[in-house]
Design brief:
This protein is of the alpha+beta class. The protein is built from 5 helices and 6 strands, in the order αβββααβββαα. Helix 2 packs across helix 3. It is rod-shaped.
């Protein structure tokens, strides 16, 4: 079951589709499709579409997971992932966006419309790069590293303390051996 085909077909008649743990495709009024990672909570729609096509719930979840794995793998290797006729998801400065294929003006469009489209293709609008957002996992990793360093410090401190105590114990044992090895005197 090709999840990409289902996404493309669903978006021809609907405005939004969430791919759980990946992102959301949104169709604007001018039929431009946008992609955002910000909304990625599972609303069950994609899974329901796969189940309606005859997959079991487990197989549907597996198909979605494979789609996400393939997308993330392609993005990490090439920085691009093709989503059928919707376009290509590209990764720029840590942010994913959907780059749609350029649309050539059709014969039915008027001359001013064709000129406007041609002008956009020659002089694309300048887009300011969005700052990559800080992810919660960054802070989690910092906290985890601090905890590990504290644990290592506690272990080293404990080892040094036990080594020091061991030296004191050894000195005490030497003193006791010395006293027991001395011949008894009448003063004792």
């Amino acid at each position: 079951m090709d999840v990409t085909e289902i996404i493309v077909q669903y978006l021809t008649a609907n405005r939004r589709l969430v791919v759980p743990s990946f992102g959301v495709f949104v169709v604007k009024n001018d039929n431009e499709v946008l992609f955002s990672e910000l909304l990625n909570d599972d609303d069950g729609v994609l899974r329901g579409l796969l189940i309606a096509r005859g997959l079991s719930e487990l197989a549907a979840v597996g198909a979605i997971d494979r789609f996400i794995f393939n997308a993330r793998y392609a993005l990490s290797e090439t920085g691009r992932f093709e989503v059928g006729t919707l376009g290509t998801i590209v990764q720029e400065r840590g942010v994913l966006r959907l780059a749609q294929p350029s649309r050539k003006p059709s014969v039915a469009t008027s001359a001013p419309q064709r000129q406007a489209v041609a002008a956009r293709e020659v002089n694309p609008p300048v887009r300011h790069a969005a700052k990559p957002r800080r992810r919660g996992t960054d802070w989690f990793m910092i906290a985890a590293i601090v905890v590990v360093l504290c644990a290592v410090a506690a272990i080293v401190y404990g080892y040094l303390c036990s080594a020091s105590q061991g030296e004191q114990d050894e000195a005490m044992m030497d003193m006791l051996r010395y006293r027991t090895e001395q011949p008894a005197t009448s003063d004792n």
